[in-house]
Design a protein that fits this description.
mainly alpha, 434 Repressor (Amino-terminal Domain)
């Protein structure tokens, strides 16, 4: 029987998850062991195994960013898999842009948010939906 943690960040079960499948696939495609990925990402290999097996489902955004950097993939891939795994919403626009586009200033990000909001409002008005 698999050990079940009382940690609220752990899933109650051992089925694989979209996040676990993605992590394992990317790691294996690169020919990395858990130890090698630990060295690249700074994430303990026992936690890597727990994510891959589906035991650990709720992963911090910073962890997803470190995994993406270590595996040389867009963090967006991990965001999507995390959402599919947990049902938690994707990061906000500021969080996303700070992660994906590290050279943007807070002012740049605020302008992007304003643009998105205006565009959405225009689309709603033009469709007649509220």
């Amino acid at each position: 029987m698999k050990h079940m943690s009382n940690n609220s960040n752990d899933k109650m079960g051992s089925e694989t998850t979209p996040l676990g499948v993605l992590l394992k696939t990317l790691r294996e495609e690169r020919g990395l062991t858990h130890y090698a990925l630990q060295e690249r990402s700074g994430i303990d290999r026992s936690n890597l195994r727990r994510i891959e097996s589906g035991i650990l489902a709720h992963v911090k955004l910073a962890t997803l960013e470190r995994l993406a950097d270590a595996l040389d993939v867009d963090v967006e891939d991990f965001y999507e898999a995390h959402w599919e795994t947990t049902g938690q919403p994707l990061p906000s626009i500021p969080t996303y842009f700070r992660t994906k586009h590290r050279y943007l200033t807070d002012g740049d990000i605020a302008k992007i948010e304003e643009f998105v909001q205006r565009t959405e409002e225009e689309r709603i008005r033009s469709s007649g939906t509220s």
